[in-house]
Amino acid sequence: MANAMAHSRGRRGPADGHSPVRRAAATVGVVFLIVGVLGFVPGITTHYGDLSFAGHGSGAKLLGLFQVSVLHNLVHLAFGVAGLALSRTISGARTFLLGGGAIYLVLWLYGLVVDHSSGANFIPVNNADNWLHLLLGLGMIALGVLTTRGRRHR
To answer: Where are the transmembrane segments (predicted)?
Structure first.
């Protein structure tokens, strides 16, 4: 019923199959929310007792691989909220995917140049994070481009 009402008003939900970019942005947003929450779950995040607010000294690792901190987890949660909020429109969804992808490519570059054991590594990132940031950046940009190719942006 709600879906029919949304169609009669010309609005579509992010997962209704009518807008691939909105569906992609919402999916990426949900994944970021899940990752952000999992970063606070002992067991899924190893060395949870070593979780610090920020900085390279955080010894906690999501899935035993990706270095995380409270700040890192909060960034994931913020990206998730942004993805869901921006997935409400085609232009917002495209902006989230392209802009978020660009941000993750900058984070990848940051991870390449920062000394991982220095105070400048405040997020923190490790080599596994760097590779993930590269893949996220390229993947989000690809989704933003491929799901809107040939469409007019509203």
So the answer is: 21-44, 64-86, 93-111, 131-148
pLDDT of residue 101: 97
Number of domains in the chain: 1
Q: How many CA atoms lie within 13 A of 117 on its CB side?
A: 0
Q: Residue 29: which domain range?
A: 19-146
**Burial track 37-57 (b if 16+ CB lie within 10 A, e otherwise):** ebbbeeeebbebeebeebebe
pTM: 0.81
- 97 with 24: CB under 8 angstroms? yes
Residue 101 domain-assigned?
A: yes
Are 138 and 97 in contact by the 8 Å Cβ rule? The answer is no
Question: 3-state SS string over 38-88?
Answer: HCCCECCEECHHHCCCCCCCCCCEECCCEECCHHHHHHHHHHHHHHHHHCC
Q: Which tokens belong to 136?
A: 């996220």
| Alpha helices per DSSP H over 89-126 | 90-113
Question: 5-50 pLDDT, tens per residue?
Answer: 444 444 544 445 569 999 999 999 999 999 999 999 999 999 998 8
Q: Which two tokens stand for residue 71?
A: 């700040």
